[in-house]
Amino acid sequence: MGIIKEQSEKFWNGEITVAQQHPLVPTGEYEEVAAGVMFYRWFANFVAVKTEEGIVLVDTGAHFNRAETVAMVRRFGPERINTAIYTHGHVDHALGMAAFIAEGQKNKVARARVVGHRAVAARFDRYKRTAGYNELVNARQFSGPASWPTDYVYPDTYFDDRFTVSAGSVKFECHHGRGETDDAAWVYIPQRKVLCTGDFIIWASPNAGNPQKATRYARDWAEALRAMVKVGAEVLLPGHGVPVFGALRVRQVLVDTAEYLQSLYDQTAALMNAGKPIEEIVQSVEPPAKLAEKPYLQAVYDEPQFIVRNIWRLEAGWYDGVPSHLKPAPMAEQARQIAEMAGGVGNLVERANSKFVAGDLAMASHLIDWAVMAAPEDQAAHAARMSIYAARAAQSRSTMSHGIFRAAALESAEKAGLAAPEDFRKM
Ligand SMILES: [Zn+2]
Fold first, then answer.
1. Potential cystine with 96: which of 61, 142, 320, 406 (Cβ 3.0-4.6 Å)?
2. 348 vs 391: CA distance, rounded Å
3. How much distance in Å is there from the Cα of 427 to the middle of ligand 1?
């Protein structure tokens, strides 16, 4: 058994958990998972398939690991890149392409065809318009410096619903479905019974709620997963994390993930239709317990609570049902009123610290945010804020929560002139 199959087995059996090895960890391991199909476990996974007419890539790695990505494919074979299929336009999946194009030019071979859903182009256009924001958000989300690329290789072949790429005798059936993105595609290789899911499957609770990024599509996502069940794949190659081997397991992962998302959607929609505000819905919707326990649905990247918020944003808008929030007074002014009523910022800090000590970190966070908004230069307030958010970061299982709380702790450490806490993890 090769390393990838071995890892897959261990993740499936719970011998390794995604808390121990996050699905975005780029181990660099690779293995031929079916005849001529090489799977690479990377920050975003990618796949290289040998055909009589060259290599077909499904995804291309990120902008920040391009040279290594090309080198990895070249250890598999010297053949020309015939086609690259983007499962979506996220920069960690599509932005390795520039290096393959450059390599082709250097070797004076025909330029690779680039296939993607039609909405990939609008995504790349948006990324150029919002590069500054995306760079900041990725630094916060992944807890470290991030660079945002500007050299996009747009597809030359777009499709809307379905499209089949033929290279030699091998066929790649591309299917569009909305999920993590509006430009998402999954690819089935019938001759190998291999399903490349892109980020429809990431070995974690679906990234259908990301608090800092463009909207996601939980209900459509469940639909796409149910369509994947029908092809009867025997190997599932996910966008992040390890492959799944065996028709029964593949089916189980797809069905469970669809049910997980559908349940969150149905619960949210029912409460929405009953007139409940988002604040109340967020407090009461939970994924089914039997699914939340699955090794491939752990909330180590995104969280179900954020999926609920995203469903609301998509189907209901941004009004949260609190009339004062429609046209609010500036938060700093609200905070000054609260501080004054509390008898001063010091009392807010004291109450925040007592909630912190009592373990009520959510309430401690509200109190300390009011304190620093009322007095943005108060070092004692920032010192308390640093400790509270460092603790929240440490307690957060998900990348999304960890990154945001960590960034708040670092911001207050700087304001308070204190050394930053050192025990932060990367993801
Ligand atoms: Zn991804």
1. 61
2. 19
3. 14
Q: Which domains does the chain have, with CATH numbers?
A: 3-263 (3.60.15.30), 327-416 (1.25.40.880)
Taking the whole predicted model, whether its pTM rises above 0.85 is answered as: yes
Interval between CA 158 and ligand 1 midpoint (Å)? 20
- pLDDT mean for each 10 residues of the chain (427 residues): 93 95 94 98 97 98 95 98 98 97 97 98 96 90 81 97 98 98 98 98 97 96 98 98 98 98 98 97 98 97 98 95 96 98 98 98 98 98 97 95 95 92 65
- Report helix, strand or coil for 334: helix
Half-sphere exposure of 18 (CA within 13 A, CB side): 24
List residues, by chain if needed, whose CB lies under 5 Å from ion ligand 1: 44, 199, 239
Q: Hey, what are 27's tokens?
A: 């181990």
The distance from CA 356 to its chain's CA centroid, rounded to whole angstroms, is 30
State in Å: Cα 380 to ligand 1 middle: 40
Ligand 1 centroid to residue 9 C-alpha, Å: 22
